[in-house]
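seq/struct pair 1
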Amino acid sequence: MQSIRQEKPLNVRAKEWVSEQRYPIVFGSWVASMAIALGIVGRSPYLSAQQKLVQARVYAQGLTLAVLVASFALESNDLRAGKGRWETIKVLDPDDPEHKRLVDKKIHHEAYAGEDQWMGEWQRKRRVFEAQSNMLDAQERKMKERGHKTRDTNGSASQGDEAKNKGQKDDAKAS
């Protein structure tokens, strides 16, 4: 693997390295720009220490924003090329009993193990919410079938229930 990488030209290896290390590069550029800006602004005798720190932070943020924009450009190029964190690969079609057909499948590459654990948690919470919502809807349908009063989303009684209640009030007045 190392020998294959060594055979590539230096500019291709540099692009690959930058693409793989884009977020550490963003952080490193912020640290470096903060240090350089503090060195430059620190020479001014007319600014207080607090003003120097604020000025250095503003300069560092400007450079970091430019590096982030470049990183997003790399990410969009990877996305168009089908590389990066999400990649489209060909796999055997699981629905094909003869296993002769290939289908596209998107796979995700984690930078480190467990990077996307939060995604599973979010999906689990969404499924729980949908199950609870379906259960409440089923309970409300059962109550309507039994003739119980139900509430709309705004808290008022539904139309069918109002008509039923009016009929019950008329019966009570007649007695």
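seq/struct pair 2
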Amino acid sequence: MIIPRAGQQQHVLRAVNVVSKTPIAIRSSQRRHIGHQVPRLTHGELFAKGGVPNLLSTEGYDIAWTKYQGHLVAKLNALTAHSSDEHALTKTLAIKYARDPSKASLFNHASMAHNNFQFFSALSPTPTTPSAALLALIDKSFSSLPSFRTTFLATATALFGPGFVWLVRLTNSPTTGSAAPLAILTTYIAGSPYPGAHFRLQPLDMATTATNVTSGMNPQSFAMNLPQPPQGTAGTMGPYARGDKKLAPGGQDLEVLLGVNTWEHVWLRDYGVGGKRQFLEAWWERVDWGVVESNISSIDGWSGKPLNRR
């Protein structure tokens, strides 16, 4: 596991009082508490030694993952130290503070740390291929794997500035089960793809629609302004059925299966100005389709082990 230098174990540090010149013992309990750590990548040791083959050089990987993820984690620890959030998952923090302007920095660092992990955790040192079950799911949504590749890479190429492009599965679609459709979703800068972070009336023009939502309103306050379901809904179906997730109007529940990071610091070192498309094509050849499948909760009754919860 890669741990920021500040988090390495030291039982007692020695300091010198600048006035008396007397050594002072600083115990471990007085050090800045470290709650978050850089997660371990499956191929992290290999990538650290030689980069991601045919995608990122050793220096490029060091910048985009080791140093940048370490920076995000260090900042996250500073923002959550000695609070109830110091051990929370980055995804949890991103959803919790997505609509709280006073916690914008915490949201940005938590969401970016989570998104960056999704990108790097789905990289393989060697080419992989989708299984027949995953290919069938892709065919139903995009007609074919080549068609999906063309659409996905075109979307990522056209994304102006830093952000992420995601492959998601729409889990509360009218089409359920293994036929639940896949879709391509874009987020900008450190934006979160998860519906829990999208407390807004998405289908409406927010410049002309009265929503009773103020700029300082957090998700809890927003929820209080939503229309409440009627009482005595036992046995009902649809949006009032028990167990249904409560989403913001227009919200779409989903699973994140795959994401590509288009931030310039990821590809500029190795591909130069204007090299974004070349980077994306090289990335496609290093997608770990086994990880993509593991992020799908069910394909024809098969259950994977989700990896994108960090």
